[in-house]
Structures are given as C-alpha cells and as structure tokens.
Write a structure and sequence with these properties.
Blueprint: E1 2-7, H1 16-30, E2 34-40, E3 58-61, H2 71-74, H3 100-114, H4 124-138, E4 142-147, H5 151-163, E5 167-171, H6 185-201, E6 204-207, H7 210-220, E7 224-226, E8 250-255, H8 266-275, E9 282-287, H9 295-300, E10 307-310, H10 315-323, E11 327-331, H11 345-352, E12 356-359, H12 365-372, E13 376-378, H13 382-399, H14 415-429
Parallel strand pairs: 1-2, 1-4, 2-3, 4-5, 5-6, 6-7, 8-9, 8-11, 9-10, 11-12, 12-13
Helix pairs in contact: 1-14, 4-5, 5-6, 8-13
C-alpha cells in the first residue's frame, strides 16, 4: 500500500507526536508498505530523535513563523531602544516607557486574527504544495494526516481532496472540544465548520483512547479507532529494572512538561509534608519542565529540599532515567473532561516496569489501566499517597529495592502491537484489505 503521511511532528524533533509518527513510519516500511512523509524543515523543537526511515522518503518543507512579527512592526513603529528604557538622568527627566500592556493586548489581537486554526498555519501552503506534487507523481492509495497542530489536518484534507485520495485523519488531541484550549464564540463556529469539513471527507478517524474513539463514532458516524501510544521494546528491553537500588532513599521521577493548574504535583507535595519526609528518605526529580512550575509549589508545602528540577533530556536518556527510578509520577487534570486523555508517558512508564504514582481522574483511562495491571496507585488524597509512599519506603528498607512490575503489566502495549491494528484499519479504509505483507 502507498501511504502519504502528513505530520508537522516527525524526527528528529523530540516530541511525543514525532515519536509516534516516526515509529509508525518505521513500522509501515518494515511491513513492506511504500510511504512518503511530508513534514516541516527546521521546526522550533529539540532535534534529538533519530529518523528510522531513509531520508529519501521524507519531504521537509519550509514554513513561515507568522508570530515572529513584533507588535511594533505590526503597527509600523520602531521597537523601544535601550535609551528609551534607561534609568532617569541626573536632570530628573523620565524615561520613555514601552507600551507593555497595550503591546500585550495587540499581540493577542494579532494572534487571534492570524492563528487559524493554530500558530503553524504558516506551514499550510508549503505542505499542500509539496504534498500535491508528490500525490500527482506518486499516486498514493491513502493520505494519513496527524494533528495537532490542526494545520496538518487541513493540509492532509487539501492534498487528498485535490487528487480524490482517501483520507484518514488522526486526532492525537481533540480540536474544537479540547478541554485545554476550547475556542469560543465566532472562532468556535468557524473552526467547527473547518473540522467538520475535514471529518466529512475522511473515510476514517484515529485517536488515542477508546472513550474519544467512541465519541467520534457517535458524533460523526465515521469509523474510528483508538491507537494507544505504546512503548518500543528497543527503548525498554526486557530484563532487570531494579530502580534506584543504589540509593538509600526513594527516588520518584517525572519526565515531561507541566500544564499550570492542570497537571499539579501538589497532592504529592502535601503527602510528603504529612510524612515529614527528609532528603534521606524521598527525593522527587522533574525532568524537562520549568522550575517556575514546580519550586513555588514545593515551597508552599515546605518540601523544597526534596525536589529537584532538571533540563530536558533525550528520549534514550529519559528511558534510562525511568528505569533507574523507584517510582514514576504521572499527572493529569483532575476533571471528568480528562478521562479520555492518555499521556504517552504512561506506556513508557509501563515499558520501564517501574511502579506508577498517578494524580488525576480516578475514572480516567490511565487510572483504569494502572489499576487493572496492578501497576501502582492512582490517588488524589495526600493521606492515601503518603500511606503508599511509606509502603514503598519500607519495601526498599527491607529488600534494598522497590520491585519492578511484572511483564504482564506491559503486555499488549508495544508500539508495533498498536500499529498492527492501525495497519489493518488503514488497509480497510484504502480498500486494500488483506494486502498487508
């Protein structure tokens, strides 16, 4: 089968979306499918992932950073100089003030007028032009477009519709009904029509959890499938995963970013406060998030001596750190709207075979998986968290380590097992059932 993949995120960009689509491309090539990828050249992301398909299969296009324009340029003004904002001279003259508040409002207005559907719209003409040229010459059986950013879904739609090619659209996050960024008013109406046009043309939809897939099936009438992110056994090989056995304390690690007011470690910090934990007992490492999102909360509960924030690391180093931890922390927004959201790191954590401490909705998909696989604890009550931490601490005192999770905890969650289901779905949508090699 000939599949054209359209994705802003792709290796070497080091993001969860790039990891998902890069591994998918590798899987499809290994299964004998002929693929091409349209992605962006020099995106503003850390470039640490290694592409796992030949570069000849990847078309990297230029793009326009539409938000690079300053408000001053937008208004035809010169930006303030150092002289404008210098301290008052001895004569008592006051410095000129930059119109910060006005500039902030104008910047928001500029983005509201131009970022449709998102800040990557400057990639749209380049992606469409290159994708249509590839489609005209190569004639793919299917276009697979993966968003966000949702500019990508627009690009896939315009490429597929121009050449009357079946389109499968992937929603790794929701669009107009997203709980983290719900557009409102006129924008919601326009973007809903945009999204609906793409869905109406699509012959199938892909998302990342069964509750979301069920929502799409019910609301759109389209075939929809949930493909979990999974883990790669190459990054998480079988064998001993003793955690931080060499440390006398309990090491808890979190790898990834934090959304302020949505992914909140406060219940953990409050539990540590209740335990009166010391650095000789527990330490919590945050890798790849901003210190400003962590340290003030730790100080509020008086546990700042237990918490360290580290820079972002490569995917390979992240896997090593996870395996070298006693407990892995995962956080979600504790809101019913979050139940279908499944952070990709959940499957990395299961792959690392380390016990999981989860904060967030107890009825959500991650909490359900953790409970069903006996993979740790999901809890939002500081007392319950403290009790579990005490048990893990005692286990480490008695045996020298916190036991790794059994193989059954991660069974069925490899990326290739998930991609097998996606492959069958794509073949059916392209009318090529049974042609998988």
């Amino acid at each position: 089968m000939k599949i054209l993949i359209v994705s802003w995120y792709f290796p070497p960009s080091s993001t969860m979306g790039a990891l998902r689509n890069g591994k998918l491309a590798r899987y499809l090539v290994a299964q004998g499918h002929d693929i091409r990828v349209v992605t962006v050249k020099d995106p503003p992301h850390p470039q640490t992932l290694t592409p796992e398909v030949p570069e000849a299969l990847i078309a990297r296009t230029p793009w326009i950073e539409i938000n690079r324009l300053s408000v001053s340029a937008f208004l035809g003004r010169k930006p303030p100089t150092k002289a404008d904002t210098a301290k008052p001279a001895a004569t008592g003259t006051k410095p000129k003030k930059a119109p910060a508040r006005k500039s902030g409002r104008l910047s928001k207005l500029y983005m509201a007028l131009t970022n449709w559907p998102d800040a990557r719209v400057g990639w749209l003409p380049h992606a469409v032009r290159r994708g249509r040229a590839i489609a005209a010459d190569w004639q793919p059986d299917l276009v697979f477009a993966s968003g966000p950013p949702f500019t990508t879904l627009n690009a896939g739609y315009l490429i597929a519709k121009k050449h009357r090619i079946p389109l499968v659209s992937e929603f790794r996050d929701r669009w107009t009904n997203d709980t983290y960024w719900p557009p409102g008013g006129f924008r919601l109406a326009v973007e809903s029509r945009m999204e609906r046009a793409i869905i109406d043309y699509s012959c199938g939809l892909v998302t990342v959890s069964e509750p979301w897939a069920e929502d799409y099936r019910r609301d759109t009438g389209k075939p929809a499938i949930a493909i979990l992110n999974g883990y790669d056994p190459k990054d998480y090989p079988p064998g001993p995963s003793p955690g931080a056995a060499e440390d006398g304390f309990l090491r808890i690690s979190y790898t990834g970013s934090i959304y302020v007011d949505r992914r909140d470690p406060s219940p953990l910090f409050q539990a540590l406060q209740l335990m009166k934990a010391t650095p000789e007992q527990v330490r919590v490492d945050f890798w790849g998030t901003q210190a400003a999102h962590v340290h003030p909360l730790a100080e509020r509960f008086g546990v700042q001596d237990l918490v360290e924030v580290h820079p972002r690391v490569t995917n390979e180093e992240s896997a090593r750190l996870q395996r070298a931890s006693d407990v892995l922390l995962i956080m979600q927004w504790d809101n019913p709207k979050e139940i279908g959201n499944v952070p990709g790191k959940l499957f990395e954590y299961l792959g690392a075979q380390r016990p999981i401490l989860g904060l967030g909705p107890l009825g959500g998909v991650p909490a359900t998986i953790v409970k069903a696989r006996d993979a740790g604890l999901y809890c939002n009550e500081p007392e319950g968290i403290a009790d579990q931490l005490e048990r893990w601490l005692e286990e480490k005192r008695q045996t020298g380590q916190v036991a790794q999770l059994p193989d059954s905890a991660r069974a069925g969650y490899t990326r290739d097992e998930q991609y097998q289901m996606l492959e069958r779905f794509l073949l059916a949508r392209g009318g090529l059932e049974g042609e998988s090699s």
